[in-house]
Write a structure and sequence with these properties.
alpha+beta, outer membrane lipoprotein receptor (LolB), chain A, globular, DUF4412 domain-containing protein, signal
């Protein structure tokens, strides 16, 4: 019994450590490609990218459902919920989670490796069924890594192009620090739900 518990604890620790990584995400939407820097810590992650010369950081806290978009040059952060329009417009994972939460059907279709990492390949299909009771409209195809607890590739079929989506590359081990998931001192926080500043 003790050996079994030790084995389980070791596996959970290994999963936790492997889910702590930094990487580059190549994100393409509506013909525009942006490179994100990712920092993942099991149940929370951070993106950093440049939007028209503006530095932007996104923090997603999966446990609380809070989502922050930071604009360091303005010393401002906007707080929203993970299922908000703002989060879905800046985070491809939130787009997938939104449709999955609305009742779309997730189907496992096999296993494939992405950049040398084994993944479970899934499809998310429309909740509207045809006359045979099948959900045939593909919304997303996702290659999910159980090793990193994160999708390593995603294709968005909603806009009708095969190029929309993201791919994670250059994965490296990373030691998390609280500063990466905190709002810096001196920032004004705007709550999107109320659009009133909080400090």
């Amino acid at each position: 019994m003790k050996k079994s518990m030790l084995f389980i604890a070791t596996c959970l620790l290994a999963l936790s450590l492997s889910a702590q990584f930094s990487a580059t995400m190549v994100y393409t939407m509506s013909g525009k490609t942006v490179n994100f820097k990712i920092f993942s810590d099991v149940n929370r992650y951070r993106y950093e990218f440049n939007e028209n010369g503006q530095e932007v950081a996104v923090i997603s806290q999966n446990e609380t459902g809070d989502f922050y978009m930071l604009m360091p040059q303005q010393k401002m952060a906007i707080k929203a919920k993970a299922n908000s329009q703002m989060s879905m417009s800046t985070d491809p994972l939130k787009q997938y989670e939104h449709f999955a939460g609305e009742g779309a059907t997730e189907v496992i279709i096999g296993e494939e490796s992405i950049n040398g990492h084994p993944c479970v390949k899934k499809e998310l299909r429309n909740i509207q069924k045809n006359e045979f009771g099948e959900s045939n409209q593909h919304l997303f195809t996702v290659w999910y890594s159980e090793e990193f607890n994160f999708p390593l590739k995603m294709v968005n079929h909603i806009d009708g192009t095969s190029s929309s989506g993201m791919e994670v590359k250059d994965i490296k081990a990373w030691t998390p620090d609280e500063a990466s998931f905190s709002i810096p001192e001196g920032f004004t926080i705007m709550d999107q739900a109320m659009m009133m500043p909080e400090r």
